[in-house]
Each structure stands twice: as structure tokens, then as C-alpha cells.
Amino acid sequence: MMIMSKAKTDGKKLIANNKKARHDYFVEDSFEAGIVLHGTEVKSLRQGHCSIKEAFIDIDNGEAFIHQMHISPYEKGNIFNKDPLRTRKLLLHKSEISKMIGQINQKGYTLIPLKVYFSGSLVKVQIGLCKGKKLYDKRQDISKRDQLREAQRDFKVRNFG
Prior knowledge:
Layout: H1 6-10, E1 12-17, H2 19-24, E2 25-35, H3 39-46, E3 50-51, E4 56-60, E5 63-67, E6 70-71, E7 88-91, H4 94-104, E8 109-119, E9 122-132, H5 135-160
């Protein structure tokens, strides 16, 4: 009998994470989408060559597309490599797309990719429905994080000091 660890059964391997998104935006809702890729792009993603820092998602004619997602060309791909910054189609249900359209039409909402990861053998993108933060919101978040860190440090010193 073979025992499998929890990490293996989950089947999710993180490729790229957009840390700046949570700093610049309030994430109201999130969706999981597949992405249409070519063979050499998948091989490059397996090596971890992906950046979604400047990426954004646009909905055109009822279809979702991701723009400015950089997937480095595969080293051994030769002529089969595609443009690293090409627009890629996202695979979503029509109901999810219509829900996104309804929420994007409200003032201040946008779609930002939060993570790119493998779910089994499939490449998935976690999309966040986000609202932009003002400068004072960012300052509040930083001060809350500093206060929490300070409180944890004090608690640690009192228990073990």
C-alpha cells in the first residue's frame, strides 16, 4: 500500500504569484480560469518562466483575454516559440463571464490575474475582481501589518523572555 502526502493529492504547483495586486487593489471576488497555450509555452511554464506583474484581463465579445502576461521563450523551442507577450484566451463559463461584465461595469472594478499554477497537468489562472486602493488605504494596510508584527514580537518576547 502506497501512502501519498497531502501536497501530492492537492496537485497545485504555483508558477507565478502577483504579490503587488493585493497591495494595489481590494480583491472582492476570485475566479479560476483555464488558459489557451501552445506546447513550448507549457514547457517554459514547467520551468517557472512566467511573469504577471503588468498583466490585466479584458473581456471582448463575450470572451476573456489576458494581456501583457510574459512567458519566456522555451530554450529548445526554436521556430515553435511564440511571442512572449501575446494575448492569450482564457477559458471560462458564459455565466462567469456575464457575472464579471456586470461587476466591471460598476465604477472602479477591474480584472487582475492573481496566480498562475498547475492544477494536475492543466495550467490555471486565478482571476481577481478588484477595486483600486487609494494611497491612504495602502498606508492603513501597512500600519496594520506593522502593528500586528509588533504585537506578535511582544507576545513572543513575553512568553520566552
